[in-house]
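Catalogue entry: protein

Sequence with per-residue tokens
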Amino acid sequence: ELERSKLIFQLGTGSANLALPAALTVQNDVSGIDINMGCPKKFSVSGGMGSALLEDLPRACDIVNVLSRNVNVPVSCKIRLLEDDPKTVHF
């Protein structure tokens, strides 16, 4: 409880159905949940996580929407810069 206001849970996921139970488990112990959509490492991308989500806007939006509707803390996303500023802003 003492540290709750200083903790953000960063979640690596490629599926809203897998992300939600994890987020629900930690929501009362953190001040926010951050979805990692920036990791370019093979283990993340091959599992449809990390920067792979930058290539799949509908799936990325589904994860954000499901978490935002079902947890009681703010949800954010870490992303990478895309090819140009307009593409990054659009994402």
